[in-house]
Amino acid sequence: MIKASLLLIGTIFSLTGNICCANDAITVVANTQDRSIYLNRQEVRNLFMGGAQHYGLHAIVLPPNNQTRVLFNTKVIGLTEARIQSYWAQMRFTGRKRAPHEEISESSVLEYLKNNKGAVGYLPAGITIPEQLTVIYSNI
Amino acid sequence: MMYRIPYLLLVSSLVWLSFAPSLYAETNDKLQLSGFARVVMGYIDDKDAQYLGYDNSVSVDQESLIGLQADYQILDSLAVTGQLIGHTADQRDSGIEWLYLTYTPTNSLRFKLGKQRTPFLNYSDVIDVGYAYPWATLPQQTYPRHFFSTFDGLMANYEISNSLFVMDIEGYWGYFEDDVMIAERQMKAETDDLHGLINTIHINNWTFRGSYHQGKTSVEIDDITQFSNLLSQIGFSESAKSLATDGLTEVFQFSASYETLDYFVRAELNHIHADFVFVPDTDGYFISTGYNYFPFTSYISYSKNETEYEQPANDIPLGLSPQLDSLAYGYLAIFDQLPVDSSEAFTLGTRWDLQAGLALKGEVSLIRGKANDRAFFTFDDADFDRKALLYLLALEWVF
After folding, report:
1. Which of B117, B297, B357 lies nearest to residue A94, judging by beta carbons?
2. Does A85 contact B259 at a Cβ distance shorter than 8 Å?
3. Is the residue at A18 inside a domain?
4. Is residue A12 assigned to a domain?
């Protein structure tokens, strides 16, 4: 009986763990001809915080209340939405950097990525990625 | 001449902007309009003193302001930026704060030419954009208000980025000319050959910034210059030299911050050195830590500064003649009247992010100074104990 209970609890933890990780997964996708590009978390963070990089990529983002954006901020950027907003206010009003272009939903991000060379955006991991786009980071 | 905007005008501008559609809009691909505003309400619990202009009655016209910025992309690599700020405070000049051209030949290199904020300290080029930092006000002990201004000149920025860190190297050169308020006196100041080097490194959750700034400053204080000339003619060259109204100004700065989703720790220290009378050598620092619990951030801070003036010379003999005695006492009186602003502040506060671009902050600071110092207070009663609580409520907005 005890064994069966432990097995059941273990199964539940295992399942919720898998659901948790699948739900938490983020894929960063780019419209680039160089299909060999694969970035680490630090490079993705720099890219979406306006850092200069060598691949000619420009980031696009989702609006502040979007769940994928919240997940991306939590798992990749590692800062709260409020702190990210403060950061962009500082960058904008000191003439250093401009905040990335914003698209309203995941489907419009995909559409934008398909139509703009060099564009890079983040999407939930389960989404189907069109053939012409390249996955350059995933936290699965 | 100081220009300020009436508080009613600020309020009506904010009301109008709140009903206007989002101003931060790409009116087309080339022109971007944006802005920021803050309404800061303050009060100190002591009826005998003022601090940063706040007194024992609730005041909203000391740090409230509105700023509008336009960025126009002339070519792919060339843009022009203008920023207008309207201050409610008497001490701050309203008008054009920034006006510069930006040339970006590569995505790592940028040049800015024109009127810009002097980037002495970590937040000095964004001091008016309260939304950009967690506190209701930057600590006076580290960010003395008289010190921050603009310069006309060239700034170059180069960014090095790799898989481990991002490094920004900034250098600038230019000049500054404006009225400043030093030691309770308003005077015209000029700084030539103003230049500095700033290095900022981001590594994971850490950010470090170190900088050095230097300039040749001269101020116009006619009575001091005349007195100095008189001392020089009589032969008291050391005393005359100690009343110099021009000399080298240097600023050293270092800051570090560590930020995660849950909390932050930020610290900054600086040393200001000036080779002329009225501007003391100053060491200042602050440390602040905060805890994030969406949509709130609560923080505690401690800031402290120590200021020290050059010691008066002693080449005017005392007791030889009444004329020399009065000359010596007149000379020493200049140094006796210089206000010492050494002080410390303990701060406790909370920021509430109401929505993207809008935040409300409340904080209370205990300000303390030594018995004989001014400690940034303004007071008439010499028995004032140099201790007061400052309450601030700030609404911060970027649009």
Report:
1. B117
2. no
3. no
4. no
